[in-house]
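User: I'm curious whether this sequence folds into something compact or stays loose and floppy. Could you predict its structure so I can see for myself?
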Amino acid sequence: MCHVIVTCRSMLWTLLSIVVAFAELIAFLSADWLVGRAKPEEAGGGTGPPREPFRPTLGIYGRCTRVSHVQLSRRDTLCGPYAEHFGEIASGFWQATAIFLAVGIMILCTVAFVSVFTMCVQSIMKKSIFNVCGLLQGIAGLFLILGLILYPAGWGCQKAISYCGPYASAYKLGDCSLGWAFYTAIGGTVLTFICAVFSAQAEIATSSDKVQEEIEEGKNLICLL
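Assistant: Here's the prediction. I'll summarize afterward.
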């Protein structure tokens, strides 16, 4: 018989697992990893006063640039992939970063999906599903760390230099600054390991003596603080 067990710790772990997976996925898809040098723009063919400088952004495989429409006196920010396929990613280090991050994110998304069902299923093949998911989150965290370590090594590629100036090189930003996506990926990685540790607390909460007592009383829906 399926017993629906909901505790504060198990629900918190589930929510954190979902948040971490989405945070890493959004960061990976974003082009805001590097913020390039400011490029001042001029109005109407260069005869008007300078407009607010625009700083293009560069991601692992995408970029955002601004295109001016002189006749229409408007500007469009265009974002999209600069690489049509994997081999066109600007650096071999960034290719490795993409692989490690993609594997880690796939694991996190799988755990996030499974975590929703832990209210009904607490074990699989006689093993705690929380412990299994926690182990997978720890493995995903290691893949994410490898990707984030390799990413700065690609700052010396020609694509990054075109955004960050001639002084950009491996682990040196040049005229660029780090965008929100990079910090989001770091924060998500830290939360991944927190989730991995917290999964043990979720397992303890759902297998406590109080839960067992309510199961013995014949309750199918068990909610505990």
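Summary: Strands lie at 4-7, 34-35, 57-58, 62-69, 74-81, 123-124, 127-128, 177-178, 221-224. Residues 180-206 form the longest helix (27 residues).
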